[in-house]
Each structure stands twice: as structure tokens, then as C-alpha cells.
Amino acid sequence: MAKRKRKIKALPTIWEVSDALWTMIEPILKQLDPPRSTPGRGRIDQRAALNGVIYQMRTGCQWNVLPKRFGDDSSIHRTFQRWIAKGVLQAIWAELIEACDELGGVDWQWQSADGAMGKARFGGTMSAPTPRIAGKTAPNAA
Predict the structure, then answer these.
(1) For the chain, how long is the longest CA-to-CA vector?
(2) Does residue 74 contact residue 107 with C-beta atoms inside 8 Å?
(3) φ and ψ at residue 15, rounded to 5 degrees
(4) What is the spatial distance between Cα 78 and Cα 11, in angstroms, rounded to a whole number?
(5) CA–CA–CA angle 139, 141, 142 (5° rounding)
(6) Is 95:28 a contact under the CB 8 Å cutoff?
(7) Scanning 62, 88, 93, 135, which has its CA 20 to 30 A from the CA of 22?
(8) pLDDT tens-digit profile of 2-43?
(9) Is 73 in contact with 63 (CB distance < 8 Å)?
(10) What Cα–Cα distance (Å) separates residue 117 from each residue in 111, 114, 120?
């Protein structure tokens, strides 16, 4: 009789920032990306923008097809670009790694690298033929 495979219950996919996680991230955003003090149009909600960025990164969808619940797609993309320039995402990542390290949730001995291979579009770049480094030595060489 064949063994039954053990069913492993998959963890739910994280699509939005939880309240506990937001309490860790909000001070970083207040420090590195404070609200503008100059008059003008106000910024979008940072939590909604972060949720939109997470959604876009997880799905790989185009920015202009983000669900409307996150807000205006161009505003989210602009916020994402500003956060990249200010180093906000690196600070958030460092904070999360530190918190995870304190919980013992990361096994630093095990590491992995990932990559993808794909066909070059339109044949890729055309390279020159490889030059010979020696003369032809075959008996039928002309």
C-alpha cells in the first residue's frame, strides 16, 4: 500500500501590511519621508501606497493596472520612486531583518541564489565570428 503524502497547509499570501507590521514601518516613514511642509497638494496615504507597492511586486502587474483600492497608480509609482531615492525601502528591510533575527527566524547558514534564463529577443546581439588562433591542420584543408 502506497504512503499518503502529508498535506502541508500553505501560509496565506501577504498582500497588505498588518497593523503590527505598520507600527514598525510608520516611524521609518515619518523619519525618512515626512509630510511636506510647503503648501500644495497633499500626499497619498503612505500605508495604501505601501500596500500598492507590495501588490505590484508580488504580482508583477503593470503600475497602471493596480486595483483602485490602493489609490492612484501614478501617485503610488511616484511614491515608490521617492522611497527608492531616499533609501526608505532599505531602512524598512533592515528593520524587518533585525526583528526577524531577534525572533530567530532567519537561518543565516543557508543561502540560495536564484536566476532565470530566457531567449534573447530578436536574436540578441550579433557577435563577430571567433578568430582562429592556429592554422588549419586537417589533411583535407585547402
Answers:
(1) 85
(2) no
(3) -110, -20
(4) 31
(5) 130
(6) yes
(7) 62
(8) 677 667 666 566 778 999 899 999 999 999 999 888 888 888
(9) yes
(10) 20, 10, 9
